[in-house]
Structures are given as C-alpha cells and as structure tokens.
Amino acid sequence: MSDNLKSSQLTDKQVESLARALEQAQHIVVMTGAGVSADSGIDTFRGKQNSLWAKYDPVTLASPEGFAKDPETVWQWYQWRRQQIEQATPNATHNMLAKLAERFSLSLITQNVDGLHHRAGSQQVAELHGNITVNRCNGECCDYQSANADSSAELSLCPQCKEHYLRPGVVWFGESLDENVLSYAEQAAQKADLFLSVGTSSQVYPAAGFAHIAKSHGATLIEINPQATALTSGVDLAIAQPAAKVFSALKRQ
Asked: Does the predicted TM-score (pTM) go above 0.85?
C-alpha cells in the first residue's frame, strides 16, 4: 500500500484498502485516542465542560498538586466523569476491534481511561493513562487497588493503610506512565507490520511515538481521524472520518 487516500466522504476504496491491509497483516497494533470515546458521547478531556465544572481547569484537577490542594473537588470532578462514562456504551470501533482481536494477532493500546474497550469484550488492553473505573491508594507505600469504583461514593481514606485518600486509577499530569505498559506498547510497535492510529491527535508523547517506532520497523501506517494530525503526512492511508463510521462500514464488508 503506497497511496495516501483522502476524501471528504468515506469511500468504498478506503474501506476496501483497510480491510485488505488487515487481512494481509501478520501482527496488527491499534492505538486509540479520545476521538473513539467521543463517538460514544464522552467529552474529550479538553473539550467543553459541564457548566458546573466550566470554571475549573481540567489540567489542574488532573494533577497530584490539584489533589493535594483540594482533594474533595478533584474527587467530585472524577465522580462526575465516571457517571458520564457509566451512561455511555461501546460503539462500532470498540466492538469491531474486539472482534478483530479474535481473528487476528492484534495488540490494542489506548490513551483512553474509560474502560469501554473492556466492556466491548477486548481481553487485553494496554491502558497508557490508566483506568478511571479503578480506585487506588494515593500513598506511595500502599498498593491497594479496587475495580468497579462506585461513582456515587464520597471521598474516603484507603481501607488498607487508613492514612491516604483513595484516588482514581489514572495517570495524572506530572506522573510517570506504568513501565510495564510502556514496554508492552513499545515491543508491540516494533513487531507490527500494520499500525492503526485511530481517533488520536498524535500530539501526546510517548503515545504519539509508537507509530513512528512501527514505521521505522517497516510497518504500514493507517490513520483514522476526522482532522489531519502531525502524523497524517507520513501515513500510507489517511481516512479523514470518525472512527465509528469507518468501523461500521468495515463490519459490512
């Protein structure tokens, strides 16, 4: 595949090219970003906030400093986000990727924290930025973690150490990504002969670097994103459409 197909409308040729690339690949890596969640009605992180939260800076709230300064406000903001996610359902992208993983050798990496890939049936997901449906202790010396966080619960101390507050199991600004997750993603990118960048602006590193790693090891790059990104000029196939629209069409192939 060498032609970079672009169109204001989704074309049969684009969908056929995507389907053919999937069929021919030996190992597929898919990186998903906020656009995939947006197709399920989940606000993007820097998008328009609910009027109640409009006066707050999300970057400040999603930080260790913000939590240390005002843990109650940060907790309530995340509870609001959890409630929004609970009301969302996996879309065609989530569902199709889960099915593709049953047919092909596919590694799924996501920058999203909403857990919708799991709810769609994906068994293994490298969650670079953690998972909002998980609670963990904010203390450095405590390893407490629990799944299926209650979105109506009040801020509380960790039940294990009883010294530090519980916090969402996400990676905040200024925190390091999990080394095991990073290593998995990098190794997958190195092995890939097909890399799909789906619903991501390709601006946030290290996530944005995995496509370049794959390319340097000979992989075909396909981008599915409504807007052009820093990656677009270097891909083999750019489909400028919402991901859910593309994967809905792929399902009909």
From this structure: yes
